[in-house]
Structure formats: C-alpha cells, structure tokens
Write a structure and sequence with these properties.
about 375 residues; alpha/beta; Rossmann fold; 5-stranded parallel β-sheet; 16 helices; 13 strands; about 40% helix; globular; binds adenosine-5'-triphosphate; binds magnesium ion
C-alpha cells in the first residue's frame, strides 16, 4: 500500500491511477502520520504537489527520525534547484515533476522493492553528515570492497550516502559499481574557489536510491591538478548534503588522504591476517597518534578474518595493540561480485560477508565518535596536528 497525500481529491485520484498496488489517499499531513501508525510495514509516502513545501520538508525530517525505512517522494509542479536541494537535505528520496506519472510509478516500484528486501540492521540515524574514511596502508586489503559495501548497507537502511573515491590515480569505485564515469572529482578544478551545494551536486554520479558517488578521475595525471583545499571543501559541503560521506582511499598517505582524515568523524582502518598488513596498521596507528587524531573515532576491521594462516585473534590484537571491531570473512563471491560490478551487499544481502558488514554497521558505524572536531577541520587543514 502506498500513502498518497494530496489536498485535491481529483489530483489524488489521478495519482492513484499511476501507482502500482493499492493506494491510501489522504488529504493532509496529519492523516499521513495516522496512516503510518496504522501500518508499521508501510514503505512509501507520496507527497503531492498540493502539499506546501515547508510542511512537506518538516514532515520528512520528522519521518526520517521516526521511520527511517519509509521513503518519501515529493511531487512539484516546477522543479526548482533550491527546492530540490532543500528536499534532499530534509531526507526526501526523490523529487519528481507532478505530471510525470511514469517516473512516479517507477520510483514507487523501486522503493517498495528496496525497502522490502532492505536489512534492518542499521541503528538509529547518526548525527547528519558523518564523514567516514576507510584506510589501509597496505594495498589490496579490501578498502574499496568495504567502502562500497558499507555504502550499500547504509543506503539500504535509509541513510543518504555519498561515496567518494580519493584514490585519485587508481580509483576503483566506478568499476566496482559498474558505473561509467561522465564526471569526476577532477571537475572540481572547473568549479572555482567558492564551493556550494549546487556546484558540488554537479560532481555527483547517482548509483541507486540514497547512494551517490563522486568518482575518481579517468585520465592519468588529472589527480595532480586537484588542489587539496578543494577536495577538503568538497567533503565539507557533501557532509551537509548527506547523512554519511564515505571516503575510499589509496594505500598511501597522500595530502588528499590527510585532508580526508582531517574531515572525518570516523577512521575505519582495515587490515588482514598477514604480518605485512598488520605491521602497516601498527605504523598507521602510530602516525595517527602522532598527528593527534582522537582514538575514540578509530575502528579497526579485519578482512578475510577466517583465513587459516597461523595467526590467532590474540596474536593479531597483540601486534595491533587495539581491539578488532569488525570481522569480514573471506569469500570468492566478493571477487565475483566485483567482476559483475555489483557489491555483494546489494546482490546477496544475506551472504555471510554482507551479514558481517551489516553487523559492523549496526554495532560501530552509527555510533561514530568524532575523530576530528568538524569545526576545527572547517577552519582549515590539519589545524589539530602538532
Ligand atoms: N573478504 C574478502 N574475501 C575475498 N576476497 C576479497 C575480500 N575482500 C577483498 N577481496 C578481494 O581482494 C581484492 C582487493 O580488494 P580491494 O580492491 O577492495 O582492495 P583495496 O584495499 O581497495 O586495494 P587498493 O589498495 O589497490 O585500492 C579484490 O580482488 C577483492 O575481490
Ligand atoms: Mg581500492
């Protein structure tokens, strides 16, 4: 059942004609709350063009807290860019032209499917704009795999996510998600000094409902042209547009990686049960301490945690001198999913690897404590460092 809120009964009847399945029409926002209370399984609310914008946005913000699993589709007679941005900020999943019945039907179908299969493991929504960087100083540990799957899990649990590829030379997010990059982070160079949401929105490539990406440059050498201050400013703006900004990184501590770490509320540090990866994690932890990042915002994840390679969990924690928060098992299905261009958490949400990532999200991601003071980051790069 889809709840349609439209003050004009004629308009409501006409909208109902486009929608798949049964429809419950209501004429005001208060009745939407009542209809939702009566049906805990409801997943889609359509707010018609007759609903006043400020009322629609207030209601959506409230609903995001109360029922994050319900998607709101907002219809407008004209699509004004500022209204669309305000709607995104409030948590509206899609803003559509009021006369585009086909797009409305398609969006409803997508959301019903998405939320019916969505895992309900994410905790209560975190404070808006959590910035999370996934890093490992050892190449091939699974950063891109974890970053893409984390993004999918968060998005499917109702969070608005932007996944950003800071691996500026060899970025793999586009290929891992089966996306063809038409724009990339390199386009930052064309946007001038003063970034705002409208400009940053032009860098974004949509992937699926709730999940957008800022992709790495496709042309070698473009990375050098991207000023580190611009990437930091871009992350700052993105954090005002999404619930989560997830940053995938290369295996080197570049200036851009430092900017990402500076801007982050949580650092997810990935390792694997092999001595070089553990040694590099130890060195990374020492470096982060030296740079005065708050340890409370640090989470360690062990990828391929079940590999029988002669190291016990106790051995690993002794080398790393920190508890391991997340354990991702090894599976060849991970590689198969990458080759198919679809993250495992999307293709097989109940696969052991997907379940491990969902459990990690539920237990650790939404509880992120600030690794860096966002206010300090916004004052400029690396203010907090010695
Ligand atoms: N849990 C896992 N089980 C099996 N294979 C995995 C697992 N995690 C990652 N892989 C495989 O390891 C390879 C490297 O993964 P990924 O590209 O995510 O690493 P990365 O840290 O991003 O690498 P780079 O440093 O090159 O960016 C991929 O082929 C991926 O399929
Ligand atoms: Mg990678």
């Amino acid at each position: 059942m889809t709840i349609v809120c439209e003050p004009s009964p004629e308009q409501a009847t006409s909208l109902a004609g486009y929608l798949p399945g049964s429809v419950r029409p209501v004429t005001d926002i208060l009745s939407v709350s009542d209809a939702l209370s009566a049906d805990p399984a409801e997943t889609v609310v359509v707010l018609g063009a007759g609903v006043e914008l400020s009322q629609a946005l207030d209601f959506t913000s409230w609903l995001r807290q109360q029922r994050p699993g319900v998607g709101v589709i907002l219809l407008r007679t004209t699509l004004d860019v500022n209204d669309v941005l305000a709607a995104m900020r409030a948590g509206v999943r899609e803003v559509l032209a009021a006369d585009d019945g086909a797009a409305l039907a398609e969006a409803c179908r997508r959301f019903q499917h998405q939320f019916n299969v969505a895992p309900a493991t994410a905790g209560p929504p975190g404070p808006g704009g959590n910035v999370v960087t996934v890093f490992s100083a050892k190449g091939g540990c699974g950063k891109t795999t974890l970053a893409t799957n984390l993004s999918v899990v968060l998005a499917r649990a109702g969070q608005r996510v932007c996944l950003v590829d800071f691996d500026l030379t060899f970025g793999d997010i586009a290929i891992t998600l089966g996306l063809t990059p038409k724009r990339s982070i390199a386009d930052l160079a064309t946007l001038g000094d003063e970034l705002d949401e409208a400009k940053v929105a032009t860098l974004v490539t949509p992937y699926q409902p709730n999940l957008d990406c800022v992709l790495a440059p496709v042309v070698p050498g473009e990375a050098e042209r991207i000023p580190v201050t611009s990437t930091a400013a871009m992350v700052d703006v993105l954090s005002g547009m999404y619930d989560y900004v997830l940053i995938d990184t290369p295996a080197q501590v570049t200036e851009h990686v430092l900017a990402a770490l500076d801007a982050s509320h949580q650092h997810i540090l990935l390792t694997a049960p092999e001595i070089p990866a553990l040694k590099n994690l130890r060195v990374t932890l020492d470096m982060l301490d030296l740079l005065s990042y708050d340890r409370a915002g640090r989470t360690i994840v062990l990828n391929r945690s079940d590999a029988q390679v002669g190291l016990t969990e106790a051995d690993i924690e002794r080398v790393v001198r920190n508890p391991i928060a997340g354990h991702i098992p090894s599976s060849r299905d991970v590689t198969v999913s990458i080759n198919r261009g679809q993250p495992l958490a999307a293709a097989l949400p109940d696969h052991p690897v997907s379940l491990a990532i969902r459990q990690f999200v539920a237990e650790h991601v939404h509880q992120a404590a600030p690794a860096a003071s966002p206010a300090a980051s916004r004052r400029g790069l690396r203010l907090r460092r010695r």
